[in-house]
Amino acid sequence: MRLTLARASLIRHRARTVLAVLGVAVAAAMLLDMVMLATGMRESFRELLVSRGFDIRLAPKGTLPFDTDATIPSVGAVTAVLRSNPDIREISPVLGASIHIPVGPRDVSATILGIDPTVQGDYEFLSGRDVTTPDAMVANDSLIKRLHARIGDTLSVATGYDPQTRTYSGQRKLVLTGRVRFIYGAAEQLSAAVRRETLEDMGDPARRDRASLFMVRVRKGADPDRVRDWIETYIPTVSAISVATAIAQVDQRLSYFRQLAIILGSVSLLVGFLLVTTLVTVSVNERAGEIAVMRAIGVSRTHVVEQIVAEGVVISIVGALLGLALGLVTARYLNGILSTFPGLPMAIDFFLFQPLAAWSALGLLAVSGIAAGIYPAWRAASLPISETLRREAIA
Amino acid sequence: MSEATATQDVHVDRVLVSLRDVHRDYPLGAERVHALQGVTLDVERGDYVAIVGPSGCGKSTLLNLIGVIDQPTSGTVEIGGKRVDQMSDWEATSFRLRNIGFVFQRFYLMPILSALENVALPMAEAGFPKEEQRMRAAELLEYVGLSSRERHRPSQLSGGEQQRVAIARALANRPALLLADEPTGELDAHTGAEIISLFQRLNSDGATILVVTHDEELAGAARRKIHMRDGRIVDGAVHP
């Protein structure tokens, strides 16, 4: 009977119930989005780092990978030291540079990575042939489109360009052999890759036997952080960054995002709470006479409270479920906008749906909605019966 | 229909309601209103009592104390030999559910429930099985002449019909005492007469009834009339 009364009461004021449900849904959507934002980038970054199975990155001392143009000298010597550690399974040195390719009267500039195709972890091969020969080059779709090139075309690629004299340096003929997708590349970034020795041979002799980055896989069961400490001890020219330390650094850089998300999430929760409190208060004030009569004919205070709280429960749960759908749609839309942020890897998601966090947040909203109904319900059920009936009769 | 008013847990005794030197004061700003001033009253089982008097004389306050929805400032109230003036909220609610039926001037039916569901409401609260609730509610609606209106909502019923549903609801748990506060106050003369007739039938079937009213016809139909003024009973306190 209590549930029947609760349901009927909600149906009686359809418009108000629908508006309240929508209000809770908006609050729930915002809360969900904030939860997804608070954890999304971090989790997405972690997934990106571990996606190719490399556990440690080595950058020039005091820098982050590709943060500056600095490079690590003596690739051979560093590799030899790394190979002496039995916990290290694979080593992938990467050299980064800029390239210039003349296309008619225009110059197209792009970034290029010099890699070892047998252990590289920078790109996903899509079609054609990988950089199996010294004159082979693979590129992403953005660059291929900009060059109006096709697989098999021979391109004149330079590592230097003087715009005043329009002259190129470190120029070499390379064959575009394949299409790839760069895992850490930003949206619309023009990128290519060649064998590391090919890039070393192009122009600047200072680039010889140097790497911008080493990526290291450790043996299964080995502790990456112990290996990281070992590397920093034995190779003083590098900063070794494990996935855990990289995430810690990202956490630090994203702390403003997280704080903003927590504040806005808390505001959403409060809005949902106040909305249900207001609705239940208005509803019970309107029905003070009915409630007093129910009490007079012997309906217990607890049962009256249960009936009123049930209304808040229905509004909160339906609102939270609608908010889930609304939150996912808005998160997808906002993610589409933010993913084009310059310099950010395309694979990074700002909003990442994590079921446990999402359900916990929506559960919290539903619980707060239920709690919001308890006080006004208890207050209404505790009104002096005779006094309330007298006031109602006068009204 | 006599079973409709058979007592449940109130002891069988000739006097059903007994008030002794009952006072009820209310704070009103800085002052105190003395709504009842030393009321002493006995109501016997099967009696039909009308409480009359000018507005503000304390009639409804007296009814509320007998109905255990209010407590006196001093004095004692017994119903069926049981002190009800100092009951906790839980005890009072439980006592009302099983021993007292209320009829209000404004009917106060649940607008979202059908006539049958409204009548069944006190039985649902008392924990009767659903089938028993339905059967007894139907039986009571038939008693008040509304068997064809079981499925109707209050908004689909006339004022007189709503009040008859409210009377059926008051009888649902076979109360020892039926209390009515201005039951004809919102009805026209013809419909009011139907309610008066229904009360008389209930009383002749054994129900103990107390009504507060300004309606001379309703008061005239009662077996006993109590006059009140300024919080005191001025006539009719003693059973004739």
Characterize the structure shown:
- With 395 residues, chain A is α+β, with helices and mostly antiparallel strands.
- Chain A has helices at residues 2-12, 14-50, 75-83, 141-147, 196-201, 224-234, 243-253, 255-286, 288-296, 301-338, 355-381, 385-394; strands at 56-60, 88-103, 106-115, 123-128, 136-139, 154-157, 160-162, 167-169, 172-182, 191-195, 213-218, 238-242.
- Chain B is an alpha/beta fold and 240 residues long.
- Chain B contains seven helices and ten strands.
- In chain B, the strands form two sheets. In chain B, strands 6-7-8-3-9-10 form a six-stranded mixed beta sheet, with helices on both faces. In chain B, strands 2-1-4-5 form a four-stranded antiparallel beta sheet, with helices on one face.
- The longest helix of chain B is centred in the C-terminal third of the chain and has 16 residues, at 189-204.
- Chain B is globular.
- Chain B starts with 14 loop residues before the first strand and ends in a 5-residue tail after the last strand.
- The chains are: A alpha+beta (395), B alpha/beta (240).
- Chain A binds chain B through residues 1, 4-5, 8-9, 11-12, 289-290, 293-301, 303, 384-386, 389-390, 392-393, and chain B through 60-61, 64, 67, 69-70, 89-90, 93-94, 96-98, 100-102, 104-106, 108, 110-113, 117, 120-122, 124-126, 169-170, 173.
